[in-house]
Specification:
- This protein is α/β, with parallel strands linked by helices and 264 residues long.
- It has two domains: 199 residues, 2-enoyl-CoA Hydratase, Chain A, domain 1; 47 residues, Lyase 2-enoyl-coa Hydratase, Chain  A, domain 2.
- It is 50% helix and 15% strand.
- It is built from eleven helices and nine strands.
- Strands 1-2-3-4-6-9 form a six-stranded mixed sheet, sandwiched between helices.
- β1 and β2 form a beta hairpin.
- It is globular, with a radius of gyration of 19 Å.
- The chain starts with 5 loop residues before the first strand and ends in a 10-residue tail after the last helix.
Protein backbone atom coordinates (compact mmCIF):
# COMPACT_ATOMS: atom_id res chain seq x y z
CA UNK A 1 0.00 0.00 0.00
CA UNK A 2 1.26 3.50 -0.82
CA UNK A 3 0.74 6.62 1.29
CA UNK A 4 0.84 10.31 0.49
CA UNK A 5 2.97 11.38 3.47
CA UNK A 6 4.67 8.18 4.62
CA UNK A 7 7.05 5.57 3.22
CA UNK A 8 6.54 1.94 4.25
CA UNK A 9 9.08 -0.82 3.67
CA UNK A 10 9.39 -4.34 5.10
CA UNK A 11 12.65 -6.28 4.97
CA UNK A 12 14.09 -9.09 7.10
CA UNK A 13 11.09 -9.08 9.48
CA UNK A 14 11.48 -5.32 10.12
CA UNK A 15 8.88 -2.77 8.95
CA UNK A 16 10.21 0.77 8.51
CA UNK A 17 7.70 3.63 8.62
CA UNK A 18 9.31 6.88 7.41
CA UNK A 19 7.41 10.11 8.06
CA UNK A 20 7.65 11.83 4.69
CA UNK A 21 6.96 15.56 4.80
CA UNK A 22 10.61 16.71 4.82
CA UNK A 23 9.73 20.21 3.61
CA UNK A 24 7.85 20.68 6.93
CA UNK A 25 10.30 18.66 9.05
CA UNK A 26 7.64 15.90 8.99
CA UNK A 27 5.10 17.98 10.89
CA UNK A 28 1.87 16.10 11.50
CA UNK A 29 -0.21 17.71 8.78
CA UNK A 30 -1.63 16.63 5.45
CA UNK A 31 -2.50 12.96 5.59
CA UNK A 32 0.42 12.02 7.84
CA UNK A 33 -1.66 11.18 10.92
CA UNK A 34 -3.96 8.90 8.97
CA UNK A 35 -1.07 7.41 6.99
CA UNK A 36 0.84 6.59 10.17
CA UNK A 37 -2.16 4.99 11.84
CA UNK A 38 -2.91 2.88 8.75
CA UNK A 39 0.73 1.83 8.24
CA UNK A 40 1.07 0.87 11.91
CA UNK A 41 -2.03 -1.30 11.70
CA UNK A 42 -0.71 -2.91 8.53
CA UNK A 43 2.68 -3.67 10.12
CA UNK A 44 1.07 -5.05 13.26
CA UNK A 45 -1.19 -7.33 11.21
CA UNK A 46 1.62 -8.53 8.92
CA UNK A 47 2.77 -11.98 10.15
CA UNK A 48 6.18 -11.41 8.55
CA UNK A 49 6.89 -8.32 10.68
CA UNK A 50 8.54 -8.79 14.08
CA UNK A 51 9.87 -5.25 14.74
CA UNK A 52 8.64 -1.80 13.67
CA UNK A 53 11.01 1.15 13.12
CA UNK A 54 9.73 4.74 12.91
CA UNK A 55 11.97 7.48 11.52
CA UNK A 56 11.75 10.71 9.52
CA UNK A 57 12.74 11.73 6.02
CA UNK A 58 15.22 14.54 5.55
CA UNK A 59 16.68 16.56 8.42
CA UNK A 60 13.93 16.12 11.00
CA UNK A 61 12.22 13.29 12.86
CA UNK A 62 8.94 15.13 13.47
CA UNK A 63 8.40 18.82 14.22
CA UNK A 64 5.08 18.08 15.93
CA UNK A 65 1.86 19.73 14.86
CA UNK A 66 1.78 21.67 11.61
CA UNK A 67 1.89 25.21 13.04
CA UNK A 68 1.28 26.83 9.65
CA UNK A 69 -1.90 24.79 9.26
CA UNK A 70 -2.92 25.87 12.77
CA UNK A 71 -2.38 29.52 11.85
CA UNK A 72 -4.42 29.11 8.67
CA UNK A 73 -7.20 27.48 10.72
CA UNK A 74 -7.10 30.32 13.27
CA UNK A 75 -7.32 32.90 10.48
CA UNK A 76 -10.32 31.07 9.02
CA UNK A 77 -11.99 30.71 12.43
CA UNK A 78 -11.91 26.92 12.35
CA UNK A 79 -9.17 26.06 14.88
CA UNK A 80 -11.43 24.04 17.20
CA UNK A 81 -12.96 21.93 14.40
CA UNK A 82 -9.43 21.17 13.19
CA UNK A 83 -8.40 19.91 16.64
CA UNK A 84 -11.59 17.89 16.97
CA UNK A 85 -10.93 16.30 13.60
CA UNK A 86 -7.33 15.24 14.30
CA UNK A 87 -7.88 14.00 17.88
CA UNK A 88 -9.45 10.63 16.98
CA UNK A 89 -6.65 9.61 14.59
CA UNK A 90 -4.02 10.91 17.04
CA UNK A 91 -5.41 8.98 19.99
CA UNK A 92 -6.00 5.87 17.89
CA UNK A 93 -2.36 5.91 16.80
CA UNK A 94 -0.98 6.29 20.34
CA UNK A 95 -3.17 3.46 21.67
CA UNK A 96 -2.24 1.31 18.68
CA UNK A 97 1.45 1.82 19.48
CA UNK A 98 1.03 0.97 23.15
CA UNK A 99 -1.11 -2.11 22.40
CA UNK A 100 1.17 -3.32 19.59
CA UNK A 101 2.34 -6.90 20.12
CA UNK A 102 5.53 -6.00 18.25
CA UNK A 103 8.40 -3.86 19.56
CA UNK A 104 8.71 -0.32 18.20
CA UNK A 105 12.01 1.51 17.79
CA UNK A 106 12.25 5.25 17.04
CA UNK A 107 15.30 6.34 15.03
CA UNK A 108 15.31 10.05 15.88
CA UNK A 109 17.30 11.58 13.06
CA UNK A 110 16.67 15.26 13.85
CA UNK A 111 14.23 17.57 15.60
CA UNK A 112 11.59 15.82 17.70
CA UNK A 113 9.38 18.61 19.01
CA UNK A 114 6.01 18.59 20.73
CA UNK A 115 3.93 15.76 19.30
CA UNK A 116 7.04 14.55 17.49
CA UNK A 117 8.85 14.00 20.78
CA UNK A 118 5.81 12.24 22.20
CA UNK A 119 5.56 10.02 19.13
CA UNK A 120 9.13 8.91 19.87
CA UNK A 121 8.28 8.43 23.56
CA UNK A 122 5.40 6.13 22.56
CA UNK A 123 7.97 3.73 21.08
CA UNK A 124 9.66 1.12 23.27
CA UNK A 125 13.23 2.11 22.42
CA UNK A 126 14.69 5.33 21.04
CA UNK A 127 18.03 5.80 19.29
CA UNK A 128 19.14 9.28 18.24
CA UNK A 129 21.48 11.03 15.89
CA UNK A 130 23.90 13.34 17.67
CA UNK A 131 22.19 16.17 15.78
CA UNK A 132 18.77 15.37 17.29
CA UNK A 133 16.95 17.90 19.46
CA UNK A 134 14.01 17.26 21.78
CA UNK A 135 11.42 19.68 23.13
CA UNK A 136 7.98 19.71 24.71
CA UNK A 137 7.28 22.78 22.60
CA UNK A 138 3.53 23.05 23.29
CA UNK A 139 3.82 25.76 25.95
CA UNK A 140 5.63 28.00 23.44
CA UNK A 141 2.47 27.90 21.32
CA UNK A 142 0.09 28.38 24.26
CA UNK A 143 -1.01 24.76 23.95
CA UNK A 144 -1.30 21.69 26.16
CA UNK A 145 0.74 18.53 25.46
CA UNK A 146 -0.92 15.78 23.47
CA UNK A 147 0.13 12.48 21.88
CA UNK A 148 0.53 11.10 25.41
CA UNK A 149 3.28 13.45 26.57
CA UNK A 150 1.94 13.84 30.12
CA UNK A 151 1.72 10.03 30.34
CA UNK A 152 5.02 8.98 28.78
CA UNK A 153 7.48 11.68 29.82
CA UNK A 154 7.18 11.37 33.65
CA UNK A 155 7.64 7.61 33.32
CA UNK A 156 10.94 8.17 31.51
CA UNK A 157 12.52 11.18 33.23
CA UNK A 158 10.59 11.43 36.51
CA UNK A 159 7.89 13.90 37.48
CA UNK A 160 10.06 16.89 38.38
CA UNK A 161 12.03 16.90 35.12
CA UNK A 162 8.85 16.24 33.12
CA UNK A 163 7.26 19.29 34.77
CA UNK A 164 10.29 21.39 33.95
CA UNK A 165 10.36 20.34 30.30
CA UNK A 166 6.61 20.74 29.80
CA UNK A 167 6.33 24.05 31.68
CA UNK A 168 9.29 25.66 29.88
CA UNK A 169 9.38 24.00 26.46
CA UNK A 170 13.18 23.88 26.78
CA UNK A 171 15.17 22.30 23.97
CA UNK A 172 17.63 19.56 24.90
CA UNK A 173 20.27 17.98 22.72
CA UNK A 174 20.94 14.29 22.11
CA UNK A 175 23.61 14.09 24.83
CA UNK A 176 21.18 15.40 27.46
CA UNK A 177 18.46 13.09 26.15
CA UNK A 178 20.85 10.18 26.63
CA UNK A 179 21.69 11.30 30.18
CA UNK A 180 17.98 11.54 31.03
CA UNK A 181 17.20 8.11 29.56
CA UNK A 182 14.99 9.52 26.79
CA UNK A 183 17.21 7.71 24.29
CA UNK A 184 19.31 4.61 24.90
CA UNK A 185 22.09 5.40 22.41
CA UNK A 186 23.40 8.29 20.30
CA UNK A 187 25.10 7.81 16.93
CA UNK A 188 26.58 9.98 14.17
CA UNK A 189 23.90 10.76 11.56
CA UNK A 190 25.43 8.41 9.00
CA UNK A 191 25.35 5.52 11.51
CA UNK A 192 21.88 6.01 13.01
CA UNK A 193 19.83 3.81 10.70
CA UNK A 194 22.51 1.13 10.52
CA UNK A 195 22.64 0.97 14.33
CA UNK A 196 18.84 0.93 14.48
CA UNK A 197 18.63 -1.99 12.06
CA UNK A 198 21.34 -3.87 13.94
CA UNK A 199 19.21 -3.62 17.09
CA UNK A 200 16.01 -4.43 15.20
CA UNK A 201 17.65 -7.49 13.63
CA UNK A 202 18.81 -8.71 17.04
CA UNK A 203 15.24 -8.45 18.36
CA UNK A 204 13.76 -9.97 15.20
CA UNK A 205 15.94 -13.06 15.65
CA UNK A 206 14.38 -13.66 19.05
CA UNK A 207 11.25 -15.70 19.88
CA UNK A 208 8.27 -13.51 18.88
CA UNK A 209 5.79 -15.02 21.35
CA UNK A 210 8.11 -14.58 24.33
CA UNK A 211 8.98 -11.02 23.29
CA UNK A 212 5.33 -10.13 22.73
CA UNK A 213 4.37 -11.39 26.19
CA UNK A 214 7.37 -9.72 27.83
CA UNK A 215 6.41 -6.40 26.23
CA UNK A 216 2.87 -6.82 27.50
CA UNK A 217 4.13 -7.65 31.00
CA UNK A 218 6.46 -4.67 31.16
CA UNK A 219 3.71 -2.15 30.44
CA UNK A 220 0.99 -3.99 32.34
CA UNK A 221 3.14 -4.23 35.45
CA UNK A 222 3.77 -0.48 35.56
CA UNK A 223 0.44 -0.23 37.35
CA UNK A 224 0.31 -3.62 39.12
CA UNK A 225 1.61 -4.70 42.50
CA UNK A 226 4.32 -7.35 42.86
CA UNK A 227 1.94 -10.23 43.43
CA UNK A 228 -0.06 -9.44 40.27
CA UNK A 229 3.18 -9.07 38.31
CA UNK A 230 4.41 -12.46 39.47
CA UNK A 231 1.09 -14.06 38.56
CA UNK A 232 1.24 -12.64 35.04
CA UNK A 233 4.83 -13.81 34.65
CA UNK A 234 3.74 -17.34 35.54
CA UNK A 235 0.86 -17.13 33.07
CA UNK A 236 3.18 -15.92 30.29
CA UNK A 237 5.90 -18.44 31.13
CA UNK A 238 3.40 -21.30 30.89
CA UNK A 239 2.38 -20.13 27.42
CA UNK A 240 5.99 -19.84 26.27
CA UNK A 241 7.01 -23.20 27.70
CA UNK A 242 4.57 -24.93 25.38
CA UNK A 243 5.89 -23.32 22.17
CA UNK A 244 8.15 -24.75 19.48
CA UNK A 245 10.47 -21.80 20.12
CA UNK A 246 11.00 -22.80 23.75
CA UNK A 247 11.81 -26.35 22.70
CA UNK A 248 14.18 -24.99 20.04
CA UNK A 249 15.86 -22.65 22.52
CA UNK A 250 16.52 -25.46 24.99
CA UNK A 251 17.69 -27.81 22.25
CA UNK A 252 20.04 -25.15 20.81
CA UNK A 253 21.55 -24.54 24.25
CA UNK A 254 22.26 -28.25 24.73
CA UNK A 255 23.68 -28.53 21.20
CA UNK A 256 25.82 -25.39 21.70
CA UNK A 257 24.46 -23.47 18.70
CA UNK A 258 22.39 -20.37 18.04
CA UNK A 259 18.61 -21.02 18.13
CA UNK A 260 16.42 -20.47 15.08
CA UNK A 261 13.04 -19.22 16.27
CA UNK A 262 10.00 -19.72 14.05
CA UNK A 263 7.40 -17.78 16.01
CA UNK A 264 5.45 -20.93 16.85
Amino acid sequence: MTYECLLHETKDHVATLTLNRPERLNALGGTLREDLSSALAQAIDDPDVRVIVITGAGKGFCAGGDVKAMQDANAAGRARPLLERVAPSRDRTVVLMRDSPKPLIAAVNGAAAGAGMNLALACDIRLASNTAKFSQAFVRRGLHPDWGGTYFLPRVVGMAKACEMIFTGEIIDAAEALRLGIVSAVHPPERLLAATYELAAKIALGPPIAIRLARRALYRNLTEDLRAALEFETFAQNICADTDDAREGIRAFVEKREPKFSGR
